[in-house]
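Format notes (please read before filing issues)

Several people have asked whether sequences and structure tokens are stored in separate files. They are not. Every record keeps both together, in the order shown below: the sequence lines, then the token lines. Line labels are part of the format and must not be stripped during preprocessing.
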Amino acid sequence: MNQIQYTEENISFLKNVFRKYYFENNHFPYLYSIEKREFGYRKFDSLVVRHLSFKNVGELVAELMRNVPLDVYYSNAYYGLPSNPIDEKQWEGADLIFDIDIKDLDLPCTHEHTYYICNVCGYVNSERTLCVNCNKGKTYDISIPCKRCFISIKKESAKLLDFIYCDLGIKEKFVEIFFSGNAGFHFHINDPGLRILDSNARANVTDYILGNGFMCESMGVRKYRNGFVIKLPKSGIVTGWRQKIASNLGINQKSELKLKNIVEASGGYEGFRNELNKMTRKNGVPIDGPVTNDIHRVFRLPGSINGKSGLTKAKCDDLESFNPGNDACMLSDSEVYVNLKTKLKINLKNNTFRLDDALEKVPSYVAAYLICKGLASISNAQ
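Then the structure lines:
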């Protein structure tokens, strides 16, 4: 949840630039079956409105223009009566969603671009602590992802695509990839054959992609008395997780003796199980399990503005070449003055901004980004 306390001036500015965006970008081409979706949004005071429904995109845009929310959501589910209470909506199925975020990668560069903001006075502290400015507030952290962050998450996203296409056998025509608008990627699977999967089935998919529960026995290594025995599975080790582990171990279907030596070198059955756990953590993808498992979840609307950054949830047609700071930065270029809370450097729309002064004149898209991050406020010196 966004913990930023917005001033009236900041809310007025953000609503103006958000409203202009929705007026100019009112098509939402990746929104399917709108009449069967539940919609919701988060206001600038963090209040969430849910159980809305619209017959067409025009009605949705009218609502966005009228209320100009901080964040906009829609359900992954299809309902007969989407505006009804949750147990009366008449669930008809749900898209399969995968969410992967930079914060879940535990990257070494994170501390270099993390800021700790007081939840009372908004002061930017140097570390997570009781605020040194007001001595009252606790700090929450926000991050401005760097180039290395996006290189790393793109690698994980490519691994996820391999699971989707090769392991799960989902056809490419059913897969859409979106930049979340902040620090992650969303994978929407709109295969009609998968919509009926219940929460338990989706949880099994999540565990598979994370690598949870992979056993030594799956590789033909079984505990026996005080030792172990090896018998490679007759079905082979050339697909799925078996293939991934076999590749890591450098073995094939004829490598029972080599596998025996590996297990012995690992310290026997228990030692080999520990090694397998390390391999599954390395080869799995750290998706957000609750997102995938929930068949009633409201999810960020493609084409909407992410209130944590002012960037949009943008379609990603080519994962390798997609540049979030350019391709998802869609707000106005008109210049405004902002009061900065700290010195920083950011890259947006192919421009590098080195901001060193307390008062800076910047494009509106930069101002919105910094305000949404809690690192600046709109200035009266306009």
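For reference, the curators noted about this record: The chain is about 30% helix and 25% strand. The mean pLDDT is 95.
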